[in-house]
Protein 1
Amino acid sequence: MIHPKTELRFVNSKIGYGVFATEFIPKGTILYVKDRLEIEITKNRFNKMDQTHKDIVEKFSYMDERGVRIVSWDHAKYINHKCDCNSMSSGYGFEIAIRDIARDEEITDEYGLFNIPDAIEISCGCHNCRQMLLPTDVDQHHMAWDLLVREAIEKLNEVEQPLWNMMDSGTRTDVMGFLSGQSEYKSVIHLKYQGQLNKKHSTIKSKGLSACAA
Ligand SMILES: [Zn+2]
């Protein structure tokens, strides 16, 4: 489930749709949680699908640390990637605003944390664009991403959290444990699927800024 102060808007014909803030959203705000309505597609179920459904799932899903593809039931699946994104997945599974997000600003996140099976060509137009998303990005960048995510999580209690109650109790306990100093921070590297990714394409997919999943 995505934060309520967001909506779907058409960006342009190349990018397609994107998700925008309808009000100011401060750094440290949880922007997405994997709630109970999310559609979970196991590897086994995915492998049995026809190509048409596989393509839809690949476009709109992200893969979690268990190798399960998640398709959001709401407009979270339209969040686009940017290398200088304003939202990022945390090791706890939820996404968090890593800086203040202005009203009408597009919400973007880091696809490098979604266990993509293949390289994806990107043209975010952002400063220091990586030009290409690689399955190994998480290995290379997780420490830098952790700095951003950890700093945002440390502000979690200072801002309004409409999604807090949508989170499962185990995750809430983990986060509160970290904030109270009783447990270690959980790195984004925990999002990495350790099994074999279903590599379907030997060539690079071109998605532009990519209109795929949250
Ligand atoms: Zn970029």
Note: The pocket of zinc ion is lined by residues 82-83, 122, 124, 126, 129-130 (CB under 6 Å).
Protein 2
Amino acid sequence: MYESFFGLREPAFSLTPSPRFLWLSETHEEGLASLYYGVEARRGFVLLTGEVGAGKTTLLRAVIDDLPAGTSVAVVFNTAGLDSLDLLELVARDLQIQVPARNKASYIIAINELLLRRLETGQNTVLIIDEAQNLSPSALEEVRLLSNLETASDKLLQIVLTGQPELRDLLARPDLRALRQRIAIEHHVDFLQPEQIQPYLAHRIEIAGGRYDAIFPYGADQLFYSASLGCPRLVNQLADRSLLAAYSRQLRPIPLALIEQKAKGMQDMLPLDSSFMRRNSGEPGS
Ligand SMILES: Nc1ncnc2c1ncn2[C@@H]1O[C@H](COP(=O)(O)OP(=O)(O)OP(=O)(O)O)[C@@H](O)[C@H]1O
Ligand SMILES: [Mg+2]
């Protein structure tokens, strides 16, 4: 809508988790490396956590798009209301497995047979579960049982669990400690740092075909940081709203006062949870 006014070929600040726009801050780069390494080195379990809007699903999509040939992936993006049988069914469906009956034993036997066949031909298999904080403890226990499928020397299935910080709390439950202990690699995706806001915005604008300087004035990044605390989704929201408001008034670059005004309407979206503030201020116990 406003794209051509700002010299853009396409929207630069969509809220979809598109890996095409991925800008690798240190925390995102480390998250991506953990995912690749966990999967390719067949390390079994990988855990990726991060606040709402930090970029977890975007990282998962980047990895899924770029897995080596011969790797099969089962992906569960939506976990709301899934019980353990649903989970097995989704995994079987993604791996194109037929089962004689819809019960746990049939699924496990069929999945195990497929994984062994794939291992014999050197092929890797990955299960990715996004939003894993919504899984019930019994569904998570099922995931652990899937991770038990292994030969003496190899993990048959690499499992990536991704979720909001509540996932860590869930995994800290005593009845899930067997799963917790199996996690070989973990990374927490942080928000952007103040000095990363400008390169982040500039990268997205460049991918969309535009120039940062033509859109945002000096000092805009500070406003973005205070309005978003570095949460990429909120940065995108504020950028999109500011572009739209500036377009409707035909203002270019966007005046700071306009960005400030749009930021005021977003205060209720900030993660003001005390554990978040503690983690991001580097206090002890974080
Ligand atoms: N490193 C990054 N580079 C470019 N865009 C990013 C980056 N991190 C996040 N984003 C953008 O921020 C928005 C939110 O990202 P995403 O949906 O991946 O967050 P999430 O951590 O999965 O959030 P939720 O916990 O709500 O599922 C998306 O538009 C995404 O493209
Ligand atoms: Mg997500």
Note: The pocket of magnesium ion (ligand 2) is lined by residues 56-57, 130 (CB under 6 Å).
